[in-house]
Structure formats: structure tokens, C-alpha cells
Design brief:
The protein has 677 residues and is an alpha/beta fold. The protein has four domains: 157 residues, Alpha-Beta Barrel (TIM Barrel), CATH 3.20.20; 134 residues, no CATH class; 202 residues, Class I glutamine amidotransferase (GATase) domain (Rossmann fold), CATH 3.40.50; 57 residues, Immunoglobulin-like. The strands form five sheets. A ten-stranded mixed sheet has the order 12-11-13-14-21-20-19-16-17-22, with helices on both faces. Strand 26 and strand 27 form a beta hairpin. Helix 5 runs parallel beside helix 8 and helix 14 packs across helix 17.
């Protein structure tokens, strides 16, 4: 399913990574020795250092202070703790902004943000680019050969909290980017559909960023600007990465992603995943979600997929509550371990946190940490040390790969396009559909890879397309070829509608997916708020849908469920199209949990996937496999014990017990079995 290319690992790290962001500059030096001693007690193997340290490293323009960093790196090395060393380019110092106020970003409304937070950067600013390259070079020249250095960490969470800048510097950069992309104004005008509303451009200098307009702006221009903003940040990452590669050869370079539709929606991680040596990710639970472990698993699967199926690294999550959500819900006993080991099950080579020691000052002083304000006489500290021992016991899983059962198609550019104004219903939500389909697969105990619409689908029996509003001709051909070769595809509504520039594909909807699905959509039928429709299917079974319906005409597809009422009453609602050796399903209405499960059960049967209805609900089962063996992770998110059959006898790594019969997973616990072959 994925190429078997090697994945660089942090240099000198021979166990799973365990630790977190370490900010020694927040504390007097007499605290540092206590920190390092407690890190050893907790089983810490690596820490991230220097992420927000630019003002400490370069207190004045061109004047460096590396002495404190020298001392802490030496202490960490002596303790056997590896270092993920950051370039601190996410927060330029106050002196920089005093000299270059134009480097502060401007909002779409024309407001220039000020210094005093983090990530306030115009990525098009030459002054910022020069200063960032200078501090990166200084760090690389000093620490390239440091024995504690495991990897380089560029910037921090690109796109958070702001990526787009609408200033004049960005405007000029945008025009250069457009010229490189489109070549001529004629091509740009055609791509943007500027004949509508008389928006044609006759000179490159007439083009501005899509700033605030009296009514909705040109959607193709908005979409290109989102691509431009993403590319601008990526250009800056590449500049720092290339410096580090040149000055520090052999040391992997990364930047921490936020690969989750609930966290960062401005970065195309398919593109970024190809640019880093190691894919790393930060993930924070949606604390008030009753089943936030499902969103966690989705983020982990998506991160692994961005990494091309290779092992990756969880670089940040939280030991307990965070203070930037509406309510900082504390994690329950055992939840931190379940969260951490779920990431490991889904491909992470460890579990790192923000941060090591809870801050006394600043915006995140109420953010949980490995060493909390309560100190070592606390539940969190006891769980931190217990998790450290557990991760040490799981060292054999390093380098193995997570085994997937099915694939979900996801595309950030399509998401950007669908979120723009004036769609047929404000209730259309690509993220919601992706999460709903993922949850349905999770509850069927299927492990998921995510794929780009034009990516390799070879080897997957089932591919689910929950929301692909923007679909290229290549994507349509890719999905059709997959089905014709024997695969099973499930496509949700409002997919295949527009091309790369938000122009409707010629002919009836669903555009480039018509031949795959064997149908046409004559008309969208958005439902009123609170309105629902009934669907009737085989043997009179009923499903209920809300938000959305469509007038569908089968043109080779078999109607399986029909609309029983509503604006499309009597017409096909869910269809099944036999195509070549495979099958394509289409779901034209927004189904709830039980409805999605019904459809995916039927599609899974088409795909030949085994039924797993006998397995306990909210028991997460994931396999990692490699030359060293096969490992079954069983994570029980329920309040009652679970019992499952094992495919082979084995040794449970966290307890050391051998087992040959059913495996009992206590309520809220994790078991990892090294299976015998």
C-alpha cells in the first residue's frame, strides 16, 4: 500500500521518544539540575529545546548569547537525553519588529497585528526571511556536531495562529507567484473566471490579495491565495531546512505539523510531508467531545498517511487539560496513557508533550505539563513515570508499520474550496463528513489510511470518499481505475463538483465522478434547518437523513435506498454501481451514525472485509508489523473490562505476562501483545 522507503530516525535515539518541550530559559539555572534528574526518573529520552528562545539567543541584532544553551545541552547529554533543537523563528524578538514593523502580518480586514503573542509573521517579508536565515545559520554552525543533537526542529506549528497576510509586500509576492503559476494574464483570467462580474485583469499590477470586499470575492482568487500563503510558509521552511542540511549533514530536519481537521486548516500537509525528513505532529484532544479518542485516532492515521505509511513522531500532546479551549477538562486517570499509546499504535515512534515543567507565567501557565504545579506528589507525575516505563517496554515496536484495512480520501485544497462563501447550504461541512465516516469505520474496528485523491490506491479493498467537492479529472480517473480493478468505493454527496479553480465541471453533476458512480445529479435539494427525510431500502428497512438530499438519476447504477419523502421522494438516494470487477456506492443524503454504519457494512461486505461486530464497542484494536514481529495494541476506552480472542499466543509487553487464550483488557487500560508466529 505504501513504498518501503526508509524513514530517518532521530540521531542516537535507540528507544521510543519520550519527553516534551523544555524551556529552561523560563527558570533560574539552579532549577535545571532538578529538571534533568527528574527527567531521568520519568524515563525521558528526548526533549525539544529552544522553540521560543530567539530573544534569549539574540538579545540584540547580531549579538548572540549561546552560553546558557551550551550549559543545558551539556547537562542533557551527560544524562543521556537526546535533544530536538529548534530554530526559534516562530517568535522574532521585539527589537526585530521595532526595526521592521512591516514584517507584522495584516489581516484581510486591513488590521496590522502587533507583537506580544506568537506567530505574528508576514512570510513574504524579506527582513524576516533574512533574520530567520541568520539565526538558523548561527545555531547550525555552533551545534551541528553537538553529541546531544538528535534532530533539528524548524519554526513551530506553521499556520498557527495565522498564515495569510494581506499587506503590500504579500501583494507583490502574490503577483509573482501567480505569474509563475499561470504564465499569462489570459490564462489567469480564464482560470479565475473573471468574465463573471467584470473582474478581468489587463495588467499584473491590478491584482491584489482578496481583501475584504462589499460582497463575496472571486472564489478562484481566494483559493489561489490560500495556495500562495501555504507555499510562502513552505518556502521559508525550505530555506531553513536547506541551511541545516548543508551545515549539519546527517541530522534529520523536521517541523511540527498539526495534522487534524480540528486544529490547522491552512496547510496542505500532503505537500509538506514530502519536505521533512521525519513527519512529526502535535495533537490536542477536543476536550468536551464525549468520544475524543476517535478524533485522536483519526489525526494519528492522517499523520501516518502524510508520512507515506512510514513511522512518524508525536511531538506534542498534553498530560491533562489545556487552557486555550473553552474549558480545560482534565484527563481522567489512565487517559494520558491511552492517548499516548494510541498514537504509538498508529505509527508514532514515541510520545512527547507540551511541556516538561508547567510555566508560572505567560499565556499557557494553566496548560498541563509532565511536571505539574503540584509537583511530584501528584497523580499526573505518577502516571508520567509509569508511562515512561511502559514506553521503554515497547522498544521492540520501533520501526514496525501500522497495518491498515481501508482508505479514506482527503484533500486539503478541496476543503479550502468547499469552505468558501455561497455554497448551496451553509450546513455543508467537509470536515464533519470526514469525521463521521472515520468514526463509522473506527466502530467497525477498521484501521484507516488516508490518501490523496490522485494517490496510490493499490492494495486497499475499500476506499471511502466522504467529501471531495473539488476533484480533478486525474482524481476521477484514479478512483474509476481502482473500482474497475476490483476495489469498492463509497462516495458521499457534493463530491466531484468543481475543478482546481472552483469551476463547475461540464455536464451534469457529479462531474468527473459520473462514470464511476453510474448516475447524474439533476438538482441539489438542501433541507431546511431541523428538517429530515426518510429513506427506504431492502426489505422495507428505513434510514433517516438531514441537511442534504439530491435529485439523482441512475444511469447504470442500481438504486438500493429510495427517498420515501422530501423534495426527492421516489428517487434514488443510495446507489450501487457494478464497474469492471468492483463496485461504487453513492450516498446522496447526510446520514447519521446508524445510517452510515448500514451503508459501510454493505460496502465492507462487497470489499470482502471481515465482519467484526462481535468485538466490544470502544475497544481500539490496531496492529503494527515488521521484521521484528507483529504487535497487537488493544486500547479499552470503555468503563468495563473487555475480552477478545487472539490470532496467536504471545507476550503482553506492558505486564510481561504470556497469553495463549482470550486477552482481557481491563476498563481504561492498554495491552500490547507481541504475537508469536
Amino acid at each position: 500500500m505504501h513504498p518501503a522507503a526508509p524513514s530517518p530516525a532521530p540521531r542516537g535515539l535507540h528507544r521510543l521518544a519520550y519527553g516534551g518541550d523544555y524551556n529552561p530559559e523560563q527558570w533560574p539555572e539552579e532549577v535545571w539540575s532538578e529538571d534533568v534528574a527528574l527527567m531521568r526518573e520519568a524515563g525521558v529520552t528526548m526533549v525539544s529545546v529552544g522553540i521560543f528562545s530567539w530573544a534569549r539567543l539574540e538579545p540584540r541584532d547580531g549579538e548572540y548569547d549561546f552560553g546558557w544553551l551550551d550549559r543545558i545541552l551539556a547537562m542533557l547529554h551527560e544524562a543521556g537525553i537526546r535533544v530536538d533543537l529548534a530554530t526559534p523563528t516562530v517568535v522574532p524578538p521585539a527589537w526585530f519588529y521595532r526595526a521592521h514593523p512591516e514584517a507584522l502580518p495584516v489581516s484581510r480586514e486591513g488590521v496590522r497585528w502587533e507583537f506580544g503573542s506568537r506567530g505574528a509573521i508576514c512570510h513574504s517579508s524579506p527582513a524576516y526571511q533574512e533574520a530567520a536565515a541568520r539565526i538558523t545559520r548561527a545555531l547550525a554552525e555552533r551545534y551541528a556536531g553537538h553529541p546531544a543533537l538528535a534532530m533539528w526542529h524548524v519554526h513551530n506549528e506553521y499556520g498557527v495562529p495565522v498564515l495569510e497576510c494581506y499587506c503590500e509586500t504579500s501583494a507583490a509576492h502574490f503577483r509573482r507567484w501567480l505569474h509563475a503559476r499561470h504564465g499569462t494574464l489570459d490564462r489567469l483570467n480564464e482560470a479565475w473566471g473573471t468574465a463573471f462580474w467584470g473582474q478581468a485583469y489587463g495588467d499584473w499590477e491590478e491584482i491584489q490579495p482578496p481583501r475584504l470586499t462589499p460582497t463575496t470575492a472571486n472564489p478562484a482568487q481566494r483559493l489561489d491565495f490560500a495556495r500562495f500563503a501555504d507555499d510562502s510558509a513552505l518556502e521559508n521552511f525550505r530555506r531553513e531546512r536547506d541551511l541545516l542540511h548543508a551545515l549539519s549533514p546527517g541530522v534529520p530536519v523536521t517541523t511540527n505539523f498539526m495534522v487534524s481537521p480540528t486544529q490547522c486548516d491552512t496547510i496542505d500537509y500532503w505537500k509538506w510531508g514530502r519536505e521533512v525528513d521525519i513527519v512529526t505532529n502535535d495533537h490536542y484532544l477536543v476536550a468536551e467531545d464525549d468520544r475524543n479518542h476517535v478524533n485522536l485516532s483519526m489525526a494519528a492515521d492522517l499523520t501516518r498517511s502524510v508520512a507515506g505509511g512510514r513511522p512518524w513522531l508525536l511531538l506534542e500532546h498534553s498530560t491533562s487539560g489545556v487552557n486555550w479551549q473553552p474549558r480545560g477538562i482534565a484527563k481522567r486517570p489512565g487517559e494520558m496513557a491511552r492517548n499516548s499509546l494510541a498514537h504509538v499504535a498508529r505509527g508514532s515512534e514515541g510520545a512527547m508533550f507540551f511541556q516538561w515543567r508547567a510555566s508560572r507565567a505567560g499565556a499557557e501557565k494553566f496548560h498541563s505539563a509532565m511536571l505539574p504545579h503540584a509537583g511530584t506528589d501528584s497523580r499526573i507525575w505518577r502516571e508520567v513515570t509509569e508511562l515512561g516505563r511502559g514506553l521503554e517496554a515497547l522498544a521492540p515496536v520501533r520501526g514496525t508499520r501500522t497495518v491498515a484495512d481501508a482508505a479514506v480520501v482527503w484533500d486539503w485544497e478541496s476543503w479550502w474550496a468547499q469552505k468558501l462563501e455561497w455554497r448551496p447550504s451553509e450546513d455543508l461541512d467537509a470536515r464533519e463528513r470526514a469525521e463521521a465516516h472515520y468514526a463509522a469505520l473506527f466502530d467497525r474496528h477498521l484501521t484507516v489510511d488516508f490518501v490523496h485523491p490522485e494517490g496510490d490506491l493499490t492494495g486497499y479493498p475499500l476506499v471511502v470518499v466522504p467529501a471531495l467537492y473539488l476533484a480533478t479529472a486525474a482524481a476521477g480517473a484514479n478512483l474509476r481505475a481502482f473500482a474497475e480493478a476490483g476495489g469498492t468505493v463509497v462516495v458521499s454527496y457534493f463530491s466531484g463538483i468543481v475543478d482546481a479553480y472552483d469551476a463547475v465541471h461540464p455536464g451534469p453533476h457529479p462531474g468527473v465522478l459520473r462514470e464511476l458512480l453510474g448516475l447524474t445529479v439533476e438538482e441539489f435539494q438542501p433541507l431546511r434547518s431541523g428538517e429530515s427525510v426518510r429513506l427506504t431500502g431492502p426489505d422495507g428497512a428505513e434510514l433517516t437523513a438531514d441537511t442534504w438530499a439530491e435529485t439523482v438519476t441512475a444511469r447504470g447504477a442500481e438504486p438500493v435506498w429510495l427517498y420515501a419523502d422530501g423534495p426527492a421522494a421516489g428517487r434514488p438516494a443510495i446507489t450501487r454501481h457494478r464497474l469492471g470487477e468492483g463496485t461504487a456506492w453513492y450516498v446522496s443524503a447526510r446520514l447519521g451514525t446508524s445510517g452510515l454504519d448500514t451503508v459501510l457494512a454493505a460496502a465492507s461486505a462487497d470489499a470482502g472485509l471481515p465482519g467484526r461486530d462481535h468485538l466490544p464497542h470502544d475497544l481500539e484494536l490496531v496492529r503494527r508489523s515488521g521484521e521484528r514481529g507483529e504487535y497487537l495494541f488493544a486500547i479499552n476506552h470503555a468503563d468495563t473490562d473487555a475480552k477478545i480472542p487472539l490470532p496467536a499466543p504471545g507476550t503482553e509487553l506492558l505486564t510481561g505476562e504470556t497469553t495463549g487464550g482470550p486477552l482481557v483488557v481491563p476498563a481504561g487500560a492498554v495491552r500490547v501483545v507481541a504475537l508469536e508466529h
